[in-house]
TrEMBL record:
GO terms for molecular function: virus receptor activity. Belongs to the nectin family. InterPro entries: CD80_C2-set, Ig-like_dom, Ig-like_dom_sf, Ig-like_fold, Ig_sub, Ig_sub2, Ig_V-set, Nectin/Nectin-like. Residues 355-372 have a biased composition (Polar residues). GO terms for biological process: heterophilic cell-cell adhesion via plasma membrane cell adhesion molecules; homophilic cell adhesion via plasma membrane adhesion molecules; protein localization to cell junction. This is Nectin cell adhesion molecule 1b. It is a single-pass type I membrane protein. Keywords: Cell adhesion, Cell junction, Cell membrane, Disulfide bond, Glycoprotein, Membrane, Repeat, Signal, Transmembrane, Transmembrane helix. Pfam families: C2-set_2, Ig_3, V-set. The lineage of its organism: Eukaryota, Metazoa, Chordata, Craniata, Vertebrata. Its main location: other. The keyword Lyase does not apply.
Length: 526
């Protein structure tokens, strides 16, 4: 159809251009929505000298077939053919009243229908110029009817959990088709389906599937329909019914002997609400001092060992029954990390006497257990951090001492040691007593002991009778003598006399050892 209309419009344009100045002016395209009103303009521009208009005809061109819509004749009047008679009229009153002026023959479509979509030709019959015509393409749009609904007013979360369709969004009888999207915090999947209707409209349908649960209850689900740039939104809130989620509150882990006013409460989150609560003690019966009120167990009197055990609460609603369990244990005394407790005369028995006399512990169970647990955890973290820092400090000190001792350990060649005589110490470190200067040192021929200094007339070392100790100031001035191993010198009579080097040179370069010898600083720090 589009090819035929386009070809026809081209032929009409060529026909208009081929005229002798007479022109039929029309809009190339027009559009409107179903049920609305639209004007199709047609104006005849006469030539000079003018030609005579004898008749104007409106025709509908659909699938290559022409159908007359309306005809106006200056003599015979106006005729609107069926099925357009009730919805088509000429805009100008001069035309409607059969006046001779037919320059403007615009028609008005009322209550536009999808079947009105087609090409429309406005044809002028003139004398003596002949026929002149032009064409307009009319497009009819259909606003979709949007609707969103829950698949059921009550959605039940069943076990085992399975996905199910909870909501449907529809854009029906739209032209052109709509686009549907979902907006929600609920995790789910969407399905889409398009259906083309016989009148040319399209119905788009989308289902949203989720797994019903307690978390999806009261969640918002929004459908967004986009049609020709316009956004249409609708929302619903899910009503999910589920079994009770049960937990027992009241036991803080610090139920001790003679504590007063303790209780257990069965809390249940359910939709619909819980209608029945049932308490029981596992492997036994409830204590005799228990009073049950609704969902709470009240324990009358002081705490005793009879209260220990596993307590069970069954909560039932229209969907099902769920159970909550708590293990209660009784201690002799309150835990120090369970809060501040007042201790009354009747609360805690003393091993030496009947009861404590102080009143610094509360009889009521602590309410700030959670806060103090957090403080205790924070203290543990801080203590651990301080201990770690201290441990690193100790490790650093030990490492420093180890490296220091290693640095001071002799790593040189003992063949380069120098034995000290004279005062026996240098400025780097001295010995408290110093032997007197010996007269000479013998060296036996061809002996390894040649390089070892030995005093004449002794087995080794110095005679005690030869030792002469002066004052500290005199000792500091006394020179000392060393013999380098491997040193090659010529000595007369295989004897070596004492030679004295200036004190500053030896003191700056030597360090004494515990065996009475000195060693070069260069060898010390190798």
């Amino acid at each position: 159809m589009a090819r035929c209309v386009g070809l026809w419009a081209l032929l009409l344009a060529l026909h208009v251009q081929a005229g002798d100045g007479q022109v039929v002016q029309m809009d190339s395209v027009k559009s409107g929505f179903v049920g609305s009103q639209v004007e199709l303009r047609c104006v005849f521009v006469n030539s000079n000298p003018p030609v005579k208009v004898s008749q104007v005809t409106w025709q509908k061109l659909l699938n290559g077939t022409k159908q007359n819509v309306a005809i106006v004749n200056p003599v015979l009047g106006v005729s609107v053919l069926s099925p357009f008679r009730e919805r088509v009229s000429f805009k100008q009153a001069t035309v409607r009243h059969q006046m001779s002026s037919l320059e403007d023959t615009t028609i008005v479509f009322s209550n536009l229908q999808l079947s009105d979509e087609a090409a429309y030709i406005c044809e002028y019959t003139t004398f003596p110029a002949g026929n002149r015509e032009n064409m307009v393409n009319l497009t009819v749009y259909a606003q979709p009817q949007t609707r969103m609904s829950l698949t059921s007013t009550t959605i039940v979360a069943k076990t085992p959990r399975r996905k199910m369709t909870v909501a449907t969004c529809m854009a029906a009888n739209g032209k052109p088709p709509s686009v549907i999207k979902w907006e929600t915090r609920i995790k789910g999947d969407a399905t889409y389906q398009e259906t083309r209707n016989q009148n040319g409209t399209v119905t788009v349908r989308s289902n949203y599937q989720v797994t019903p649960s307690r978390e999806t209850h009261k969640q918002k689900l929004t459908c967004i329909v986009t049609y020709r740039g316009e956004r249409i939104t609708e929302s619903v809130v899910l009503n999910v019914q589920y079994e009770p989620e049960v937990k027992i509150e009241g036991f803080d882990g610090n139920w001790y002997l003679n504590r007063q006013t303790v209780q257990l409460t069965c809390r249940a989150d359910a939709n619909p609400p819980v209608t029945i609560y049932q308490w029981k003690l596992l492997n036994g019966s409830l204590p005799s001092n228990v009073e049950i009120k609704n969902n709470t167990l009240f324990f009358k009197g002081p705490v005793t060992y009879d209260l220990a055990g596993t307590y069970v609460c069954d909560a039932t609603n229209a969907i099902g029954t769920r159970t909550g369990v708590v293990d209660v244990n009784i201690t002799d005394f309150p835990s120090p990390d369970r809060g501040n407790f007042q201790r009354t005369r009747s609360d805690f028995p003393s091993p030496d006497r009947g009861n404590f006399q102080s009143t610094d512990f509360p009889t009521n169970p602590p309410n700030n257990h959670g806060i103090q647990q957090e403080q205790h955890s924070a203290g543990v973290v801080i203590g651990g951090a301080v201990g770690g820092v201290a441990l690193l400090g100790v490790a650093a000190v030990l490492l420093f001492i180890f490296l220091r001792r290693r640095q001071r350990t002799f790593k040189g060649d003992y063949n380069t040691k120098k034995h000290a005589f004279g005062n026996g110490y240098s400025k780097a470190g001295g010995l408290p007593a110093h032997p007197s200067k010996p007269k000479n040192l013998p060296y036996p021929d061809d002996s390894d002991d040649e390089k070892k200094p030995t005093q004449i007339g002794s087995t080794g070392g110095f005679e005690p009778s030869d030792r002469n100790f002066d004052t500290e100031s005199e000792d500091l001035k006394r020179p000392y003598f060393t013999v380098d191993e491997g040193e090659s010198r010529e000595y007369d009579e295989r004897t070596l006399g004492f030679q004295y080097d200036p004190e500053p040179e030896i003191a700056d370069d030597m360090i004494s050892q515990t065996d009475g010898s000195v060693i070069s600083k260069k060898e010390w720090y190798v």
